[in-house]
Write a structure and sequence with these properties.
Length: 72
């Protein structure tokens, strides 16, 4: 069964469920699965990203070419 067929079958099953608690659990599960990547980062990674954004906002930038030269 391909993914499109699986999705259609899942929708059919959900449409036939009358249990509100179960539907809420399914919705909660789906919302957790599509969580923001930010919550999966370590504190150090979050700090580094925030620092980089702050530097960009202050006009401190490195061109893509220069960045490639540094890592090559």
């Amino acid at each position: 069964m391909d993914i499109k067929t699986s999705k259609i079958e899942l929708v059919k099953i959900i449409l036939n469920i009358d249990n509100d608690d179960f539907i809420k659990k399914v919705v909660d599960f789906i919302n957790r699965e599509k969580s923001d990547f930010w919550s999966d980062l370590t504190e150090l990674e979050k700090e580094e990203i925030s620092k980089g954004i702050e530097q960009l906002n202050m006009g401190e930038r490195t061109s893509y070419k220069d960045a490639l030269k540094k890592i090559s």
